[in-house]
Amino acid sequence: MGGEKVKADEAASVFREEIQKKVNDFKAKGIIPKIVGFLATQDAGSIKYAEWTGKACEIDGISYEVRTVDKMELEDKLHEAIEDPKVHGIMIYYPCFGMAPSFYGGSMDDYLRDSIPIEKDVEGLCDTYRRNLYRNIRYIDAHTQQYKGGIIKKADTAGTKKCLLPCTPLAIVKILEHLKVYDETVEVGDRLKGKKVCVVNRSEIVGRPLAAMLANDGADVYSIDISSAYLMKRGKITEMSETPEQLVRQADIIITGVPTKDYRLPSEWIQPGAVVMNVSHFKNVDEASLLEIDNVKYCPLVGKVTVAMLERNLLRLIDNFHS
Fold this sequence. Notes:
- The protein is of the alpha/beta class and 323 residues long.
- The protein is built from ten helices and 13 strands.
- The strands form three sheets. An eight-stranded mixed sheet has the order 1-13-12-11-7-8-9-10. The protein has a three-stranded parallel sheet with strand order 3-2-4, sandwiched between helices. The protein has a two-stranded antiparallel ribbon with strand order 5-6.
């Protein structure tokens, strides 16, 4: 029987239609949605992402500007864009400094990421959005009174302004919804209940926020990197003693994001019927052997949906703060 290769284009096209309509609505009100992206890296994946974003924005009627800068000038140029009222969303293509320390503590890339205010953080990666994601707070204007076990027990306000979520993790969620992995017959927050997920990546841009998002939707998520594995359930993190092989063998959903061409997830670990998604610039699986497994669904690229989520985030920023 074998497996099925899934293209992300279909999932992206639904959102692109909604985006184009919303952009036209804003233009009718005199608002020209604008993103500025800062490119201070020679990373091939980042350069390609910038190209995809530019093409999509041109088609969808969004003003998009890439500003190529020296990384030592990036902070000053970033603050110029923050002060510009015509700019609605700002993003930085990482890595810029890698793990190089900043003068203010922590890595320089983390410092820059947290320097973008919530009103313009189109990628949803600043400290406020990340903190709300990990605490399962879904609205930026809901003031929590009590928080326990990953669930908001009571709030002063119900909230009207949805938090932004990181683009690539959000793209993965939307593709899983497109594949009907989410059970839409139950309440939001429980639609992945009973699913076991392995995320082979723990970066702050993809792996860690993705694990939190899937756990917030009810899944048991195993967050795996080269030296450790953790189980993430809503509001709880537990260190695991099992090997990656043991965890992957029981997973319904597997997401790989290892940024090296030398890594391959062994296909024999993957059970029939699993959904496998790759978010690395490199193929983390052997595609031919993977597609021999019965009823496996394999999505090798998520970039087009990621760009659609970026555009969607921009329009949410305008709704929340700029309209």
